[in-house]
Amino acid sequence: MFFRITVSIIHFLLWIFNGTIDVQGKEHLPEDDTYVLIAPHRSLLDPVFIVIAAAPREFTVMAKAELFENALFGWFIRKLNAFPVDRENPGPSAIKTPVKALKNTDKSFLIFPSGTRHSTDLKGGAVTIAKMSKKPIVPAYYDGPLTFKELFLRKKARVRFGQPFTVERKLDGVKDITAHYNDHIQAAFDQLAQDIQPKK
């Protein structure tokens, strides 16, 4: 309830300052099952717009442990289904927590495979979580304001969802499953980035 109320309030504020979000491909989001939603991470704003675009679905999300050091802010983001992860030494909980949530709750999992806003190298966490939970991966792409200045200048925000796919434990002729699916994810991101622009 707290998650959905907060998302609704933020959505209303963004509508005031930035207008309506152009949501594309929402029909690809599974309605009757949880899933792993993945996207490139370029800004503090992209997870906000992506979660709003996928509403009313709730998500769990990992956040760097430092964000939980402030008791009040830590309480707030925990209420938004965030859990702490030490980015230098992630530990097994970085995998087990989202897998458990995907299997045992109605919450999906949002992850940015590059890990940080300043990295384009895909990590294997998303693939591992999807494989262990036996849930599909849905790629997403955000195109819009990357800074608060661009937000208030009303740069158009767009979110596009791609086709879901499942992660198989084994594939004939494929030795490195994670690398294989990371290539698939990157290709999906590239295609979404190409398709998200409005038709001329």
TrEMBL record:
It holds the Pfam family Acyltransferase. GO terms for biological process: phosphatidic acid biosynthetic process. It comes from the Bacteria. Transmembrane segments: none annotated. Keywords: Acyltransferase, Transferase. Residues 35-145 form the Phospholipid/glycerol acyltransferase domain. GO terms for molecular function: 1-acylglycerol-3-phosphate O-acyltransferase activity. This is 1-acyl-sn-glycerol-3-phosphate acyltransferase. It comes from Dolosigranulum savutiense.
